[in-house]
Amino acid sequence: MNWINDPNGPMYYNGIYHLFYQYNPKGAVWGNIVWAHSESKDMVNWEALEPAIYPSESFDINGCWSGSATVLPENKPVIFYTGIDPNQYQVQNYAVPENLSDPYLRKWVKPADNPIVVADETMNKTAFRDPTTAWKIGGHWRMVVASRRKQRGIAYLYRSRGFRKWVKAKHPLHSVPNTGMFECADFFPVSLSGDTGLDNSAFGPNVKHVLKVSLDLTRYEYYTIGSYFPEARDKYVVGKGFVDGWNGLRFDYGNFYASKTFFDPSKNRRILWGWTNESDTAQDDVQKGWAGLQAIPRKVWLDPSGKQLLQWPIEEIETLRGQNVQLSNQELKSGEHIEVKAITAAQADVDITFSIPNLDKAEPFDPSWTNAQDLCGLKGSTVQGGVGPFGLLTLASEKLEEYTPVFFRVFTGLYKHVVLLCSDSGSSSLRKEGLYKPSFAGFVDVDLDDTYKISLRTLIDHSVVESFGAGGKTCITSRVYPLVAVFDDAHLFVFNNGTETITADVEAWSMAKPDKMNN
User: Fold this and answer.
1) pTM above 0.90, yes or no
2) Are 305 and 497 in contact (CB under 8 A)?
3) How buried is residue 54: exposed, middle or buried, by Cβ count under 10 Å (0-12/13-18/19+)?
4) 118-154 pLDDT, tens digit each
5) Rg value, the chain, Cα
6) Residue 14 to residues 17, 18, 128, 136, 511: CA-CA distances in angstroms?
7) Of 6, 234, 252, 264, which one is the catalytic site residue?
8) Is 461 an annotated catalytic residue?
């Protein structure tokens, strides 16, 4: 309960996963922020520990804000975080475990040489935060601190030989005009082949780098993939064809912000955490303490095309699967919907493959439709098309007074078919006031002419609907608050409102609660 936001520096240490996150122990609104600390052996069952750090020193007396964790080669973990000093300036600090023999790392201390990074006179001292996980190439450790100069987003680069004295590089790692403030930056390597994750210090000819930033102005994130040149210029260069700005690629096109990745050496994978925030949600929900939560952790890796990342729920989530239902070769004519019964529709894992026998009826795509979210609002789940809309009606009441549709719509583009994935919360609740009910959407980079098939996996957890289109190419998280479609009164349907008949192969599971839910 109470306010939760940014996942700070998740890490794996001596067989235990640690998650730090921003938390208000005193209420369900932002403020009184400490670094909450939880531990797990499987990232499914979590146990809350005492806060790792909280305001106590001059360099953080007005707040302990977001940051990261780094595990040094000597197997010594370090926390970087932003402190708010008496002048309300944002300064970068570090903390270390008090006792490395404690397997849970319960207590952390702040050395006296803090702060270790302070903005100089050329920089914005009140917009300078969220230090990244550090990486080492050659003789220098490096980290990034997010900032801005007027409306230019900046990722400042700092270097250190001994990890305590840090010097600002001559040039930022990267900067972009007209984005507004960068925050919660993340910089990490990905392998050009396979789905194996890489340690943050990995570098070489078979490696690309990802720079993700959260944008304070839009409350969305975006990422690019490019090349990192550490020795000559210490610069990141965005790859050809990537949009570097507000319209760039996103980890998630829904309610997902302030994300952070970490390398999991136990399974050689990179894990993505994100905060599914609740800005503008129903006020009574906020008062009950439902003010944000961490999304299900995802494995993330480079798509074989090199044009984007792929994401998928960690395999450990499947340990919660229970009752299983399969519907094979279900034909859905225009206007039809079929209920998926015998599972807990309010808490479920659903995996569907849709087969499209003919694409000739796909609507023409207007090149001016560059904003997927606007297009989803224009052509919702009830607006008949040629190929689609087809998909799921999640958290639906029996008579469909409430439902949250997650669906595809296919268009005929200039060179290939254009696929849109939507998660529309407009009909999710009968509440009339105080509820944020947007249409979220993203385009899906698939070639339907090869397979005439597309997949959708959706995880449903009462107020959260997380969807993964086309094997994790496009992901959308929605927060919804039905009044009728709750607990046993929630239903799940597969639907088709396009004129072209669609065939669906459905596998769905009831999902159990973890044994430990951060208690």
Assistant:
1) yes
2) no
3) middle
4) 999 999 999 999 999 999 999 999 999 999 999 999 9
5) 23
6) 8, 10, 32, 21, 29
7) 6
8) no
